[in-house]
Amino acid sequence: MKNTVTTLQQMKNEGEKISMLTCYDYTTACLMEEAGINAILIGDSLGMTMMGYSDTLPVTVDDIIHHCASVSRALKNTFLVADMPFMSYQTSVYDAVKNAGRLIKEGHAQAVKLEGGASVCEQIRAIVNADIPVVAHIGLTPQSINAFGGFKVQGKNIERALQILEDAKAVEEAGAFMVTLECVPEELATLISEELSIPTIGIGAGSGCDGQVLVYQDMLGMFSGFKPKFVKHYANIGEEMKRAFFEYDAEVKSKAFPAAEHNFKIDKEVMDEVRASVHKSDLKISEKQKKVIA
After folding, report:
1. Quick one: pLDDT at residue 191?
2. pLDDT top residue among 154 and 113
3. What's the chain look like in SS3?
4. How far apart are alpha carbons 66 and 73 in whole angstroms?
5. Which entry of 14, 182, 195, 287 is annotated as an active-site residue?
6. Is the pLDDT of residue 124 over 80?
7. Is 182 a catalytic residue?
8. Domains of the chain, CATH where assigned
9. Which among 70, 154, 199, 238 is least surrounded, fewest beta carbons within 10 Å?
10. Residue range 143-159: average pLDDT?
11. What's the number of CA atoms in the CB half-sphere (13 Å) around residue 66?
């Protein structure tokens, strides 16, 4: 069944969990589509996973559009959400609507996601009024990394917990159809999920959310460095990829690859004629060189 704003809301209403993963390329999107993942997020995490930045801040709207359009070509049933990168919506309501429109028109996304609570409700309202579905994002908002002073769990004291709860209610009232809760204590995220009528998608926010999202390279073990507490490795694809790369390198250098079964054949008579033709060409070149020397 095709996943839409309506079906995702129905899943919350019926107590069915929503699965979401990040994705940035056509090939991986094909596999996620076949696996039945409900939603894909073209996250600005691509700045770190695909472009090698230390955070998400350098990512542009054009970067998101490029990857989003590639992923969209693989999808028939999976719902596609595109991140609005840093400074694509904070500068003005006009910029927010314009850039959201580009993600829909050029990236072929079905919804956009932007970070922030009450502070971005004006942008959310304007984007929704342009008939573009919006996913809000509260708790730890990576685009605010400099303000937060690092990647830290949010909502552990009474003031911050109440602020996150109020932000959740505010973005729902502004028209967001779904909200991401990142790095929020499980009990707080569960309460928020119960208080809201729209679905919540957790990342480091516990099982009480209406769905979960992970960066796909994280859940496949494709990074050998830091592993966030909330990440589960469902496979160690990174090690398997390295093993294959090592084996390929060794076989190329030892001439074990390509082997006979990987090569194409040609009739002996054809090759004999080709060699004869090459021989005649060599003789002609040799005669020309003799004339030049003379």
Report:
1. 98
2. 113
3. CCCCHHHHHHHHHCCCCEEEEECCCHHHHHHHHHHCCCEEEECCCHHHHCCCCCCCCCCCHHHHHHHHHHHHCCCCCCEEEEECCCCCCCCCHHHHHHHHHHHHHCCCCCEEEEEECHHHHHHHHHHHHCCCCEEEEEECCHHHHHHHCCCCCCCCCHHHHHHHHHHHHHHHHHCCCEEEEECCCHHHHHHHHHHCCCCEEEECCCCCCCEEEECHHHHCCCCCCCCCCCCCCCCCHHHHHHHHHHHHHHHHHHCCCCCHHHCCCCCHHHHHHHHHHHHHHHHHHHHHHHHHHC
4. 12
5. 182
6. yes
7. yes
8. 5-232 (3.20.20.60), 243-293 (no CATH)
9. 238
10. 84
11. 10
* Per-residue confidence band for 291, with pLDDT thresholds at 50, 70 and 90: low
Asked if 25 contacts 70 with a C-beta cutoff of 8 angstroms, the reply is yes
